[in-house]
Each structure stands twice: as structure tokens, then as C-alpha cells.
Amino acid sequence: MAHSMDTDKQQFAALMQQFIGLEQDYFETINEKPVANTAQLSANEGLTELGTGASEALEYFSEFFAEELSGSNGPRYLGFVTGGATPAAIIGDWLTSLYDQNAANFSYSLAGQIELLTIEMLKDLFSLKQAYTGSFVSGATMANFVGLAQGRQWIGQQYGQDLAENGLFSIPEIKIASGTPHSSISKVAAMLGIGRNALQQIPVKDDREAVDLAALETFLKQLDRPCIVVANAGTVNTVDFDDLEAIGQLKKNYPFWLHVDAAFGGFAACSPKFERLLTGLNHADSITIDAHKWLNVPYDSAMQFTQHQELQLEVFNNHASYLNTGGAQPDFSNLTPENSRRFRALPAWFTLKAYGKAGYRQLVEQNSAFALELGKRITDSPFFELLSPVRLNGVCFTLKDPAKTTEFLKKINQAGQVFLTPTTYKNQPAIRASFSNWQTKPADVAIIWHSLEAEAQQL
Questions:
Q1: Do the domain assignments include residue 459?
Q2: pTM for the whole thing?
Q3: Sign of the torsion formed by the C-alpha atoms of 246, 247, 250 and 251
């Protein structure tokens, strides 16, 4: 006889105690877990006929899977600008699953209103003006997708065309200009039918990843037609920032849609020490900011902001009558690519409510201080070379012999004390370290440095 779902419901309190025991053990041992883990599955049992029930499934997970998962949400995971879920965000995520709302519209649940409330809290956190509206999507790639889709629609309007209805064939080729675009911008251009080759990389300033403003203006003048400009607020290699104020001023003389990719750099607004890096952000037509980075909520979560919700509605409007509720506020199914939407706003609301502006100011300043400390140690080291000044929470460096970078990274990540990711900077192999986890402490920086230095000595 198949195991009964009703039986598990009746035993749910006991199941939760079993789960809480696993959760407590995880939190208590996260600092000892390998930061990265390349282990293979030690069991390969597939689908059974009758099932095991939730309790036995949890025991199986604990025995065969739990110890082999990486500690990527722990304090020494410095790859991919990955945050680790705060306690409040975890509670919010549990409740997201418990209540299991489809946050697509406003008629059947309070979830949509909570999402709007959370967006307002985030606008306050990032000092965005009231003209912006926003919504949650799955990550920075989809936030960039939503922003550039609106930019595509805006360009069509400049030619008197509705591209959402008629496609791209009726207008000249769309160009996307950026100094150091994230790889997702190229991916988005492909998904939108604009094409990867439409991405025009503009020269950057000497020894920087920030766009050269004179070169950008020259491009805009020579193009002499509407385009999309993607400005960067925190590049992934060196956390460099374009001059958003100066780029915003160019909109007075040239027709372009300004999209700001502030996936993690937007959090500089939380701190008086770093908010200057975002001067001019409110010139943006659309903005990307990630939540599963520095907000430290579980994957997958990001926000897109826009000053042109009417264009967003033109692009993503879903005409199915059973989905539309006809209220004054457009349903999220008409504003984002998804019709079925997880209640992503709830973990964000919980962590914002729990820790407030001061909590995130402290997190940003603390992580940035750790990055600065690591940068100083690298500068003073005989084994490493710092490739760019530490501006916020990222450190870009290489070995004195860059050719050994691949070997070094393989060994350092296998050792399990710290996880780092490779990159290429100024045409040479390099290493990225991104501090964005709420659990990282000064002792972790010491452990990270000891591991880096020990592996470098053995090369």
C-alpha cells in the first residue's frame, strides 16, 4: 500500500521536529563544512512504487545527500557574489512553501499586496524615487531581460511601431552599448531577438572597467538613432561603477534607454560610505538589483524596477481572460515573464522587517571592510598581485605567475576552506573574491588568507 499523504499531514508536528533537528545541526556545523564539494552521489535509488513517507525520506536525505552538499551559504564562500540566507529570510522561505501562494495577481491572495509593500521598502533602502515601480523575478538575468524588453519596446515607439505586437522587422537594427557588460546582457539580447552581435562594447577608462564617457558620447553621436545603454553599478570582476550621473545627463542630447545593472552594487546605497557610487541612479529607465546576493535571501530572487510600467505592460501583458483580474494595479502575470510566480517577496519582507536599514548598512560595510583587508594582504604578499583597487566588496587578483591560476584554484577549492572563482582581467588569468555573506567574521578572513598563502607556497 502506498504511503499516505494524509498520514504525513497528521504527523506533521513530528516531521517538523525531525526537520528542525537537521536544520539546527546544519547551522551549528556550517563553519566546518567544506565550502565547495565535488563529491559524487553515494546512493542512486530511483522512484519506488509505494514511496517511503516523509520521515524516511528525510532520513535518507540526511544520510546520503546532506553531508555531500557544499557550504555555499557559509561565511567563506566568495564565489559568484553569493549571499547566505539570513535567519529571518529562511523563516520567510519556509512560510512561502507552507502557504504556497501563486503571486501572479491580486484577487485571490494578499501576496500581491505584500510584494508591492516589499518593493516600497526596497525603494527606500536603495533611495529610489517614487516614480519607480517594481516586481520580483528569479534573478539578475531575468531582471535584465525585463528591463531590456522595455527598452526594445521604447525604441519601437520612437519609430511609431509596437514591437511587442509586430516584431523587430519594421525598424532598423537595435544596438546595445555598454562598457563592461555582464554576460547576461548578451544572453538577454539573444532571448529578445535583438541578437548577441547587437551588443557594442564601448572603450573603458584606463585601468578601469567603467565606461569612457567621451567614447560613449562618440558612439551615440555616430549611431544617430535610438538605442539601449547598459550602465554598470558594480562590475563582477572589480566592482567598478559607471558615472551614472554623467550618463544620465547624456539623455538630454541623445535618444537612448538607460538600463542600470546594479545586481549587487545597488546595495552601496545602504551606506553613507559608498552611496556616492550610485549618484545618478534615478536617471535610469530600468534597474536590476539581485536579492539572493547582498540581501541574503534564498535562491532564486531578484527585483526589477522601472519608470515606465506602461511599456512593461505592453510587453508582458497576458490576454488570457482567466488570468486577468481587471483591477487598477496590473497583475504581476502581466508585468513579468512568468504566469506562475512563487511568493519570492515574502523572504525579502521578513529580512527587511527583521534587520532594517541599519542591519544592511552594517552588512555592506562589514563585507566591504573584509574585502579591503584581503586586498591589503594581497598587496603585501610575495605570492599575489592585486589587479584593481578594492572599491566595495570584491577583490580581483592573480598569482605572480598567472599561468598557475587554474592549478591554484583547483587546489584551493578542493581544500574546502574557501571557494573562489576564476575570471579574465585585462587579458590575463585572474581570481575573484566576493564578500556578501552575513555570517562572515574577521576570523574567517584569517582562515581564508591562511589557506590562500599555504596553497601558493606549495606551487
A1: no
A2: 0.96
A3: negative
